[in-house]
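Z., the sequence and structure:
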Amino acid sequence: MKQQFLKIFVLSLVFTLSGICKTTAQKNLKTKKPNILFIAVDDLRPELNFYGANHIKSPNLDKLASESLVFNRAYCNIPVCGASRASLLSGMRPTRHRFIDHKTELDVDVPGVVSFPKLLKQNGYTTISNGKVYHHNNDDSLAWNSIWFPKGDTRDYQLEKNIKQNTAPNSRGEAFELAEVDDNAYFDGKIAQKGIDDLRQLKEGKQPFFLALGFMKPHLPFNAPKKYWDLYDRSNIELPESYVQPETTPKEAFHNFGELRNYGNVPKFGDISEDLAKELIHGYYACVSYVDTQIGLVLDELKRLELEDDTIVILWGDHGWNLGDHKLWCKHVTFEKALRTPLIIKVPGKTSGQQTNAITEYIDIYPSLAELVGLNAPETVEGQSFVPVINGETPDKDWGVSKFKDMVTLIKGDLFYTEWTKDDGVAYARMLFDHKTDPLELDNLAEKPEYQETVSHLAEELRAKWGKDFLNK
């Protein structure tokens, strides 16, 4: 009888301890902060299926969007890579003297500021930077447990003619190439594989992780394996409807797209020929499909490793890009095509393909991610969290501000108002577009008598919202 009682007691104790261990494990799982997979794509326009386009083949981005919240009106705060990335990762606005161009370094412009990856690292995250996250690989180096970038020339040519031309003095290869190579020949294939390897190691770790993957394409030159070019028939590619520069638009709004002119097969001055323009667009599409495949490989591995339910995934392009819009190429302007960006965020248990028309600035990303992982953003952060939008609430913000050099733009509802200002804030040119009636931005309303009261109000609001440090040295 005593033996039977002892046996029952031991079994009961085992079950009790097992239950306690299971409860403790569940509690630990719930209290562990979520991981973040942070995907940056260089020069990616929101010309994708989930934004209403239907001609670019990007099935992996489409699938991610179907599981995410899609921001239909996300805008970078400055349309140039170095400055945009420093602004986004610090949560701070560009000013006339801060975050200026592609050479921008966060460590130089705002030394000592707590960037988002640094905030995470200070709070127990393993932080990894792969590829082009900041423009300079060693920028904000204290924020990362490791920084990795593929070896080789960043233009990443594979064809001998381009390699030879690119290594000649003061010369570059062509603006695009299609090569019979596998995906891992180019940088983005290598970046995807490094991300996959990191996920496998992070799976075994006890710390939450922030894995940043900065993909290089579709940045110039438009180099991609031939199979991605073969997805498109160039005879079906058309020039944009806005392939014109109206006389009412200030001449300051247009530039010579020197970034593209640097390449060997592009004329130094004048319009791009129609054939070359279509070839460039073809190359851009091929690069989007190529990077889409690489991102898909990473997302598939995240799922295979059963990390999907514990990981926030955010994907963004650093700014928009002109593909002949207003007869312009590249970025470096404040037309909507250069400012509007793709932004999608997947939050396990909260997103499932919703879309929002809330105007969102890139400085809003830092405080939003911080809130999602239960951290307080530092006082230097100027953005506003969009977590209420994720939770289905109506945002109380309906505006954004972007700038480039002398140009500064207020986005307010359907209105895009731009001023070219001097150091003292006085405007010397301006333009206003109403996207409700003029989505292509071809009719500048700023100088029309009937819009002067509107312009006056927008000018006042622009100055109230461009940031307290905007004019400071």
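The chain is about 30% helix and 20% strand. The CA atoms of residues 385 and 396 lie 11 Å apart.

Let me know what you think.
H.
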